[in-house]
Amino acid sequence: MDAVPIERLMGPAVVVDVSNKTKDNADYTVTAQDFQDWEENNGRIPDGSIVLVRTGWDQYWSDKRQFLGTDTTDTSLLHFPGIDPEGARWLVQNRGVHTVGHRISQHGTVH
Questions:
Q1: Which tens digits make up the pLDDT trace of 60-96?
Q2: Closest Cα partner for 106 from 53, 50, 56?
Q3: What element of type H or E holds 92?
Q4: Which of 75, 79, 84 is nearest to 30 (CA)?
C-alpha cells in the first residue's frame, strides 16, 4: 500500500449500483457497458475519480455459504460478484479513474 501515491486515494467519487444484476447471479462481473449505462443516467464519471461498485452482496455477510458460494476452504469454489477486466480497463483508459472500490462487506464501507 505504501507504493500507491496518496493522490490516487483521494478525489471525487461515484457509486455504481449493480445490485439488481447480482441478485440472481453470484458470478456477475461489472462490465464497461454497466459503467456507460451509469453515465447515461447520472452524467460522465469524472476523470481521476474513485469508482465504488455496490453489488448488494453484503446482504449475505452473515451466511458464509451464500456470501462466498461455499463453506469449504477450496478457493476454486468461491462465487461472488466482481469487476470484469475489460470494465476496469475501460475506466482507466477512458476516464483516468484513480481507484476502484468493490463493495462486498458491510463493515467499514461507504453507504
A1: 667 666 666 667 777 776 667 888 999 999 999 999 9
A2: 56
A3: helix 85-95
A4: 84
Chain segment 65-74, per-residue pLDDT in tens: 666 666 777 7
- The answer to whether 92 and 55 are in contact (CB under 8 A) is no
In this prediction, residue 31 has a pLDDT band, given cuts at 50, 70 and 90, of: very high
Note the residue count of the chain.
111
Closest by CA to 8, choosing from 109, 96, 108, is: 96
Burial class (CB in 10 A: 0-12, 13-18, 19+), 46: middle
- φ, ψ dihedrals at 85, nearest 5°: -55, -40
d(CA 46, CA 38) in angstroms, rounded, equals: 12
What's the pLDDT at 34? 97
